UniProtKB/TrEMBL annotation:
UniProt name for this protein: EGF-like domain-containing protein
Organism this protein belongs to: Bremia lactucae
Disulfide pattern: C206-C215, C243-C252
Record flagged with keyword Signal: yes
Residues annotated as transmembrane: 312-333
Domain EGF-like: 177-216, 219-253
Signal peptide location: 1-21
Record key words, sorted: Disulfide bond, EGF-like domain, Membrane, Signal, Transmembrane, Transmembrane helix
Pfam families, alphabetized: EGF
PROSITE patterns per UniProt: EGF_1, EGF_2, EGF_3
Amino acid sequence: MHVWNLASVLAVLTLSQQVAAKGSGSKDRPGNCKDTEDCKTKGYECVALQTTRAGTETVKQCLPKEQDSDVCSGQYPGLCPSFSSWKTPYNQISSVCTYKPADKCVNGDESSAGSKGGVICVGGAKDPDGKTFDAIYGCADFDTSELELLFGEEGANDLAAELGTAPAIIEDCLSTNATSNSTLLCSGQGTCVPDAMGSLTYNCRCNIGYSGNFCEFIDSNKCQLPGQCATGVCNLDTQECECAAGTTGDQCSECDAKSSEACNGKGMCSNSVCKCEEGWEGLQCTKESAVKKSAKSTKKATTETTSGGTMLSAYSFGSITMSLAVLLAAIFFN
């Protein structure tokens, strides 16, 4: 009896940890999907965004698509995923709809040929020298510090360099105003997208509820993208932002001075605006600043050095715990 009780406890503990991990993932990444079948709301499609940003993995999100041109894909420039309500470092992603090299291009009026192995590419796309190039549109992250696209594909990066994509993105989509989201393209509430099919100039296409040249103005509490509400969740049935504790206002962009959770506990709420402590930034003080990250990295390196390499990571500790559990179970069974 004791053997089976111990084994059962171990199994339950392991299962509960797995379930908890899966649950936290969906909460931290609203709208995350693997394919379009995961998008439970009618009229939504699973759209991927490429990034090599540290601490991230393959990014896909359910986006509204009533017509092909609504989303960035294939021959159409459109919206890309938005990550305001995702946790760091995902909320540092700047979304760009831009060109990716393609093979076996066919014209848009040759859809039957496209279904036989070709791909319908961007029509009339020409480089700065007037030479036609074969490409499709795809979503990618843009690092506003390093001024580069984070495709992670040599061919795509080479094409971006040839087209002068990075300078065009900086000029057309990055606000020079000193706002809390000035380090993000389109204020983190839109997609930097070519202003016409085949164009090499860009502009910001704002998420619903936002406007302005850089999507810097909030117009309403309406939403369509699962990740667009600053610190809340977009209810896709009502298409309204539902705010998390400590936040209020349209797009959950204001702090609630009456709440103990205002400004993420990392700042003071005054006149509905957060004044963040040193080391934190963002509308609700949810983003670690570069200074904070640097200090944390230095402290970690110092600690590891002085401990003589005896520190155990969470992963190592978990592995030892599981190994000990297996050993105990084996002893009891024998």
